[in-house]
Design the sequence.
C-alpha cells in the first residue's frame, strides 16, 4: 500500500488535518477540564460524519492510498477513544456546580 506523499489522492486532507488540530487546541484552551474529552469526542465524531459525506460524493479508487474514508475512520476511532477516557462523574459534578471551574479540586 503506497501513501500519497504529495496529497494527489485527496488534496483537502492537509487542510482537514490542520483544522482538526486547531479545533482540538481551541477546546483545550477554552473549555473547563472536565468537559474537554466529552466535547472533543463529539466534535471528532461530527467531523468524521462531515468527511464521510464528502467522501460519499467524491469517487475515489480505493487502491491509491489514504483517502477521505480513511480519515473519517481515524476521526471516529480517536473520538471513541476520547469518549472512553472521559469520566462522566466529573461532567455531572461540573454541571451540578453551575459551571464552577474548580470542580476538580472539590473531589
Sequence:
Amino acid at each position: 500500500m503506497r501513501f500519497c506523499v504529495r496529497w494527489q489522492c485527496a488534496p483537502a486532507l492537509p487542510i482537514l488535518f490542520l483544522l482538526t488540530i486547531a479545533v482540538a487546541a481551541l477546546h483545550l484552551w477554552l473549555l473547563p477540564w472536565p468537559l474537554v474529552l466529552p466535547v472533543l469526542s463529539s466534535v471528532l465524531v461530527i467531523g468524521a460524519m462531515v468527511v464521510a459525506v464528502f467522501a460519499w460524493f467524491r469517487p475515489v479508487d480505493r487502491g491509491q492510498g489514504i483517502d477521505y474514508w480513511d480519515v473519517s475512520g481515524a476521526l471516529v476511532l480517536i473520538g471513541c477513544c476520547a469518549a472512553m477516557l472521559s469520566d462522566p462523574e466529573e461532567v455531572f459534578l461540573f454541571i451540578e456546580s453551575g459551571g464552577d471551574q474548580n470542580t476538580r479540586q472539590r473531589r
Remarks:
- Confidence is low (pLDDT under 50) at residues 103-107.
- Residues 32 and 99 are 9 Å apart (CA to CA).
